[in-house]
Task: inverse folding
């Protein structure tokens, strides 16, 4: 069981409504779309999500949306924190002591009190925040070496816009220049109509490339519909002759924007719309006051074309630290191992 902590820390679990959770996310620079209430509700089901915050002397210092997979009538199952916990408060000096308390309370609530297999996949870049990994280790978490680590390019968008443009790969910048001369009309909004344009372009692209998507695009549409207006994903549409030719979907939470989905129609290839779309995303994120742009997952071996395109924005090639697990309940541990084994058989 958890040793006593000073009275200045107090946790709250599932004590606040959806609107309050949105306001809580606004406190954190490491907030992201995967920690929004709507993502959890649509992805896992509202009954299967839990919302945790930790206060210090009454002030919120950390939080996490947790996916729950439990067995009825048994104190067993799993709890999953993806790209959390949130702990980097905006405009504040963040304390490692507070981070340790956040991890400690999370472990107590879900692993010890509920007897669940707790997995945390933090939004932490490898070799950049070794203290986070150390703290997880100190609280008994172990890294799962078999779980692939998220790899991406991170573009620093704090310099002046003209400097960012100059830093682009020369060939990439040339394609952007061409796109700007192709009389493309641009829309940047959050409406369902714009998402419908994305779906049509996505289908056209999938038919052209003949591959199966690894993303449920309709699920993201439901997430978009459920998100509060201020948290909705942005959709950039490039049109040529009043016809949508490219689409880019991105989120803007905390300090980092994230490229989520993209589609280029046949006409968009010639118009170089994808280059203009990405540049407009950077400009929009900068106007919103964000500091960096995560270009989404990359894999130079399985998807070299996308890797080459994204590399032209000259972001840092980074890998996240991976997944960390802790479990003291033998039944939950056995269930997790069985689930993992069955998942590998299906592949």
Result:
């Amino acid at each position: 069981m958890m040793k006593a902590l000073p009275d200045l820390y107090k946790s709250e679990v599932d004590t606040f409504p959806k609107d309050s959770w949105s306001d809580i996310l606004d406190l954190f620079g490491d907030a992201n779309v995967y920690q929004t209430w709507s993502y959890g509700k649509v992805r896992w089901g509202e009954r299967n999500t839990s919302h945790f915050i930790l206060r210090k002397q009454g002030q919120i210092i950390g939080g996490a949306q947790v996916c729950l997979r439990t067995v009825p009538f048994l104190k067993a199952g799993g709890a999953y924190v993806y790209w959390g916990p949130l702990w980097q408060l905006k405009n504040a000096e963040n304390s490692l002591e507070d981070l340790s308390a956040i991890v400690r309370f999370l472990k107590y609530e879900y692993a010890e009190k509920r007897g669940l297999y707790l997995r945390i996949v933090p939004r932490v870049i490898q070799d950049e925040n070794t203290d986070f990994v150390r703290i997880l280790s100190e609280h008994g978490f172990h890294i799962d070496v078999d779980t692939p680590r998220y790899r991406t390019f991170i573009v620093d968008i704090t310099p002046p816009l003209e400097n960012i443009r100059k830093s682009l790969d020369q060939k990439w910048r040339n394609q952007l220049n061409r796109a700007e001369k192709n009389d493309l009309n641009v829309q940047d909004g959050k409406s369902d109509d714009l998402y419908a344009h994305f779906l049509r372009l996505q289908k056209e692209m999938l038919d052209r490339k003949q591959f199966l998507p690894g993303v449920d695009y309709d699920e993201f549409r439901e997430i978009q519909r459920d998100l509060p207006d201020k948290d909705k994903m942005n959709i950039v549409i490039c049109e040529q002759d009043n016809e949508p030719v490219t689409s880019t979907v991105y989120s803007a939470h905390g300090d980092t924007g994230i490229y989520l989905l993209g589609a280029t129609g046949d006409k968009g290839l010639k118009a170089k719309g994808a280059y203009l779309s990405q540049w407009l995303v950077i400009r929009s994120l900068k106007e919103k006051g964000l500091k960096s742009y995560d270009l989404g997952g990359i894999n130079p071996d399985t998807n070299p074309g996308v890797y080459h395109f994204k590399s032209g924005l000259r972001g840092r090639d980074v890998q996240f630290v991976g997944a960390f697990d802790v479990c003291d309940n033998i039944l939950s541990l056995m269930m997790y191992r069985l689930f993992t084994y069955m998942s590998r058989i299906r592949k």
Remarks:
- The first helix runs from residue 18 to 25.
- The first strand starts at residue 9 and ends at 13.
